[in-house]
Amino acid sequence: MDEIRLNVALLRRKVPNLTTAAKSIGIRPATVSNLCTGKIDLGKAEVKTLVGLATLANCTVDELIIRGEKLKMIETQIKALDFFAPLVKGGTTGLVARPGMGQLVILAELMHRFKGSDYTTVFLLPTTEHSELEGTTELADFVVISVDEAFAKLAELSGNIIFITDKSYIVSGELLDLQEKLVAERIYNITTILLDLSGEVVDEDMPYGPLETVWQLDADLATRHLYPAIHPIYSTSSIIEGVDLDERHFHLRQRAQKLLRRYRELRSIVVVHGINKIPDTEMETYEKGERLEAYFSQPFFVAEAFTGQEGKAVSMSQTLADVESILEGKMDRMSVKELTYKGSL
């Protein structure tokens, strides 16, 4: 049976105000978002939902569904990103965070890691000045200041491109126009990462519109200085639903999320009432969840001067092996401190 997925790129082009449009015909924005990222299997979607989306995009249901074409992940060697919400090659990824939660550090680290690789990074500056970008944009291979300049640079470059820009261009409609021009010129080698320096995107039903990947940052992790503060439950990717994810990764991710979901519930009890309120039958779950959470913290190369810790890169295969070891209890002898801000095990 062919793999099927939603044509997210078509939805982005055809329905720029998808949240409002979806609500107007009785489709919940969360449903659309979950279909785009693969959180809801497209094969299980209601026919009326697909027909409604096709109507909004002024296309047929067949045009709305992509069959057989596999998505590819871009391995960043950042454990939390690669494991929970892989970056989709040629797709659009949105960072969902409030200011101060580390989204710019993640972007800086990604640009640092892509230096000298097969990927060229292009950063389109926001329409307004943001002092917090100082020290971040310098890591991009190219910095542009307008949509026209961005188009010229993207059209000029060959090979794979990581294009980073701000939500302000979505609000103005200029990003949609840019994407239309790129499609018209048959330029498809661009992977887009969107950020929102205002933090308002956190409160939206469908952050940035249709996305292949959502990196949602977690205030609790950020408060406890466990970076990158990637939320292990809410961060997701359309690549997850068996598109280009081996079966082992898929099932390990499910097991890890199940453990961390329960651990977070237990942790809320500990914060309020203390560790003694955790039932003996749940203590193993709590301690294992604590270790797994600590493991997904990671030293970044761009932060070495500030933390004094050497940056670490961990391959996807090593991350899977490490997570499996933690889940199966092989790392129970290790303390949480020993697992925090380490690379591989």
Features:
434 Repressor (Amino-terminal Domain); 12% strand; ATP-binding; 16 helices; 7-stranded mixed sheet; globular
Tell me what the structure shows.
- This protein is of the alpha/beta class and 345 residues long.
- It has 3 domains: 4-67, Orthogonal Bundle (434 Repressor (Amino-terminal Domain)), CATH 1.10.260; 92-211, Rossmann fold, CATH 3.40.50; 247-339, Bovine Mitochondrial F1-ATPase, ATP Synthase Beta Chain, Chain D, domain3.
- It is built from 16 helices and 11 strands.
- The chain has helices at 8-14, 18-24, 29-37, 47-56, 61-64, 79-84, 103-114, 147-156, 168-171, 174-184, 219-223, 247-273, 283-295, 304-307, 316-327, 336-339; strands spanning 4-6, 65-67, 73-74, 87-88, 92-96, 119-124, 142-144, 160-166, 190-195, 213-216, 236-237.
- The chain has a 7-stranded mixed beta sheet with strand order 7-6-8-9-5-10-11, sandwiched between helices.
- Helix 8 runs parallel beside helix 10 (174-184), helix 12 (247-273) crosses helix 13 (283-295) and helix 12 (247-273) packs across helix 15 (316-327).
- The protein is globular and about 60 Å long.
- The model has no long low-confidence stretch (mean pLDDT 92).
